[in-house]
């Protein structure tokens, strides 16, 4: 289907950046972006991972306890604001 589409400047910049990174034409970039946003993605996303230089693992029981304490503090703060 052929149509005319008016893009905001920021959206055009996003499409053009996507085109350069993927080596796509404008048409291909727009079609892939629309498919991805409507749940029929043909875009494969790859998230790079990096070694942090630490070979030891964290004590998960301490991490879970800290997480719980931080969550409790946040709930207390929110309740105090609503009084």
In short:
By secondary structure, the protein is mainly α. 58% of the residues lie in helices and 0% in strands.
Word description of this protein:
The chain is mostly helical. It has a domain at 1-44: Orthogonal Bundle (Arc Repressor Mutant). It has three helices and no strands. The protein has helices at 9-22, 26-37, 60-81. The chain starts with 8 loop residues before the first helix and ends with a helix.
Give the oligomeric state: single chain
Which fold name fills CATH's third level, the topology of the domain at 1-44? Arc Repressor Mutant
Helix content: 55-70%
Low-confidence stretches: none
CATH architectural grouping of the domain at 1-44: Orthogonal Bundle
| Beta-strand content | under 5%
**SS-based class:** mainly alpha
Tally of strands: 0
Shape by Cα distribution: elongated
Biggest sheet overview: none
- CATH class category label of the domain at 1-44: Mainly Alpha
- Terminal Cα span: 57 Å
The residue-averaged pLDDT reads 83
The Rg value, from CA coordinates, equals: 23 Å
Q: What is the N-to-C order of secondary-structure elements (H for helix, E for strand)?
A: HHH
Supply the number of helical segments.
3
